[in-house]
Amino acid sequence: MPGRLEARGVTxxxxxxxxxxxxxxxxxxxxxxxxxxxxxxxxxxxxxKTTFLNAVDGLVPLTDGSIMLGGQLITKPGNDRAMVFQQPxxxxxxxxxxxxxxxxxxxxDVTSKSDRDEQTKRFIDLVGLHGFEDSFxxxxxxxxxxxxxxxxxxxxxxxxxxxxxxxxxLDAQTRETMQLxxxxxxxxxxxxxIFITHDIVEAVYLADRVVVMSSRPGRVKMSVPINLPRxxxxxxxxxxxxxxxxxxxxxxxxxxxxxADAGTKEAVA
Length: 269
What we know:
The protein is α/β, with parallel strands linked by helices and about 270 residues long. Helices cover about 35% and strands about 25% of the residues. The strands form 2 sheets. Strands 6-7-8-3-9-10 form a 6-stranded mixed sheet, with helices on both faces. Strands 2-1-4-5 form a 4-stranded antiparallel sheet, covered by helices on one side. The radius of gyration is 19 Å and the shape is globular.
């Protein structure tokens, strides 16, 4: 089924030349993301969240297990996935319009220039950048640059949208604004999405489901469906049900942090 992600027994080692060993980052991780579902992944620092996301994008090889998207095995990067990183990484010599078009250019398909222009205009309007089409990245705020980053990813029409802490570098006010904007854009496109964050409030606010990963080596510890109505505005963050989700997830992560600390102390002793 298009947009359905299935990860089974995913295990990822890194070869650490400095230490001369194999570092186990993710171990026997199982996860399913349904078409059109927005899943947020949280967990202790260093638990393998980003490593797993990079594996889904085809950037990191698996030691064992498999990841399938739409029934197809992922072995390398592909046009069916698009990544939004923490830093926008826009081309400074290209305008907003040029940066969004670049994602489609690199696909190497037969889309005509006029079709790309129409798609670019659509997503400029969708992310609220009308009037800034000819601006360069240096002329934009951090939040506006991330809007371009998001539009560039969506313009390629991926089955799966991967977001690696895209708002972490923004100030608190801009971050909340971008959360609202992301939900508005996601509601218009309904792309299957995986969102990595350290912010539990952000995870609960955005997601249909929050997946909590264990401390290293990472695996799925808990999956929490977020039964809050959509569309969501920022006031929902103050409601009792929201706070219950936040506390439940925080307690689960805290257990993992304490477990990891205890393991470190034992190893040192």
